[in-house]
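ok so heres the complex, two chains, lmk if somethin looks off
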Amino acid sequence: MYQQWIELGKKKGISDLEVFAVRNKSLSLSVYQGKLDSHVQSDVEQITLRGIYQGKLSTIRFENHAKQNVDHLLNKLIENASALTVVEPAIIFEGSPSYPEVKEERFDFSKIAVIQKIQLLQDLEKYILANEKVTQVQNASYQEVDTQTTLTNSKGLHLVKRNTYAYAYAIGVFKQGDDIKTAYDVKLVKDFNEFNAKAMADETIRQGLLKLGGRSIPTGSYPIVFSNEQFADLLSAFTSIFSGEASYRNLTALKDKVGQQVFGENIHLIDDPLHPQSHFKIPFDDEGVACQKRAVVEKGVFKGFNHNLKTAAIFKEQPTGNGFNGGISPTNLYLEPTSTSFDDLIKPIQDGVYITDLVGLHAGVKAVSGDFSLQASGLKIINGKLDHAVKMIVVSGNFFDMMKRVKGIASDLKFQLSGIGSPSVYIEHLMIGGEA
Amino acid sequence: MLYKKDLKFLLQEGLATGADFAEIFLEDTKSSVIRITSGEVTQIDRGNTFGAGVRLIKGIDEVYGYTNQVSVEDLKTLVFNLRASFQTEPVNKVKPFKKPQPIKSIITKPMDSVPVSEKASKLQHLSRIMKSHDPRIVQAMCQLIETEQKILVVNSEGVFQDDLRAHTRVFLSAVAQENGNMQQAYEGPGRSMGVEFLDTLDFEKLAKDVATSAITLLSAEDMVPQTMPVVLHNGFGGVIFHEACGHPLEATAVAKGLSPFAGKLGEKIGSDIVTAYDDGYVDGAWGSASFDDEGKPTQKNLLIENGILKGYLIDYRNARKMNMDPTGSARRQSYKFSPTSRMNTTYIAPGKDKFEDIIKDTPYGLFAKKLGGGTVVPATGEFNFAVQEGYMIENGKLTRPVRGAMLIGHGKDVLFKIDRVADNLELGQGMCGSISGSIPVDVGQPTIRVSSMTVGGAGGRK
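and the predicted structre for the whole thing:
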């Protein structure tokens, strides 16, 4: 079928065409008060066609494969390409010399009976509810995903990758007096047998109890320690600063800074498509370029932008295998950990804040200026130890400035589902907005 | 191709194992994004979302499935998979389909009736206005986002309703740079309209405003964190109500008792001067629809009247759980989501104050002229939202611009702290993300004052 579309495109004057097809099957379950609350199954194939018409590249995405629709959309692709006024490299890729091999057993989640998956959620809910501070479990959710990606193009490239995984979590609602807090812990697995409802519940309860009894703290400047998860989330809100597209479009403060000291000397940021601790191993990007391990920042020196085919050609560099979803993003970008334990990391802090929750990352972060201002909660650090819970504070700063003032990095590297990983990070100081 | 008889057959099969309600949602949506960067047309993408969602309900239990394989055979397989969750004798029959009601919104210029090049050149013009406004503007970007969503909802209760929803939105963004300081400002007005939207607003003025705003931010000081009165300007300022009160009034939060407003109908939840609505249909408004995603006509829902809680937003399934009537509020991003209660156009009704008087009567505070996005955790009621453009109020006058302010608070407190409401109601557009996906919504309010809020920021002593 894909070859037919390529042929049809050729007839219409589309010199090169690429078919990027993603077939996604999923099952989602959620349990509430011991009963199945939602049960969703799906099977959807989404196609992205990238075509070059008279030297210009345009993209169409569709879900209706009927011949008539494809014919109509190819005409639209031609109209759209013709309306582009910019002169930029338009490339359909012939392929990388070799591709990294992803060594992972593929587990067939569909062979596990639905009843067993529901049981997992019922157990998870039950174990969390067993804690006396838990008033209810808002939602116990399970999802399994089986994604097959096929890339076929007129340059003769044909690549296939498949990704299967499942994840589960439950949101516990914790109450103490008037104070209500929620907590959850997402567990992603490649084999159903890796799920352990008791361990997941214990972690959720641990997190929830830590948050209870929190109070605000006086406004001021404090030493700050971000948990590994929260620093990874903060980092993920700023990955666009490393994008070659952002550089080309004047949208990153790192433009013209390649080879310069941009962060503290203790900062090493690495993009590794196959990192053993990462959740997703990625052999090639959405343009068929092999992914590669690359230092983005080494000893605080910016080593170069992430590129897709277009920006690599513009900057006369090699593509880095970071062309995803029509744009540029890292594969598994992480801040390199040290050998410092978490306890040692916070030991020198007399009066600081350990941040375990950041809310509103989509609104409170400005990647262009580097400014961030985020609702946060966590724990007070007093005399080198974790103390009482802190809530309803705002932590504010500037990312570029902050990355020059990292006082310590721990050993506890953890990857988020976003693909971004980080250990816990100690920042010299940041502003906290709290009580008057 | 699916015929009425096929749909009826599929619904009947859906009921065969004891489900008491069956629904099929068909969707064919086309979308287009035109992007202008540095005055050039740099990207034009076209999209098409196409598929079917099937839902079976028994009591309050629900199963949902979706696919883009939409032949009768494929859908039958899906229905059989879903109905395997129920294993009793049939309890209901499919009622005869009712005649569909007419669609209220009229599209005068459908997206494909205007050549792409014509739309693109209009945007190029706006981009040039921003770029040439000041030499410190280093980037000016425009986007035209268009969608036309064609849907059909049928269910075993006899609903057979189609709808055609056009959404057109223009994003304008300017980046200003001076001495290594980079600041970005943006506006994103949108309407439930076709391309005719481009003829309705003064976009040239808007482009100048965005550029001016980016330049203003260059000289803005970092907000000094403190607790203070906050004047929230009209339009997108309504995001405070959307986050802090709108979400907790959705049945998804109320039915599970997760909302601070659950079980509080008829009780005082805000100050006397607060009245608020969620209106399913405001002519041309971004968040409007003639029908909800369960095929029910949308309606205007009174939420709060003079501080008293009057109503929730309720979908079909939660109506059963709550033993209340649905409010025409069931929405979903696409066939890939089961519908649930969501907002459309949510706003605080106008009061009697004048904007100028509110500023004049505030000795010290923050004027949040433009807000960015925000978040709320319904279970805790804690919310936050970012101030995109803010000014200090000192001795009843607007003084220095400030940047990076973040407002936080509790939904149940903030309504009581509203002490002034102006008469200048306006709406602002946004995309709202929740369990049934990302949907267009209007937020809105007149200018209001909140007597005290926690404001965060990076300013002050280091």
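quick notes: Chain A has a mean pLDDT of 95. thats all i got rn
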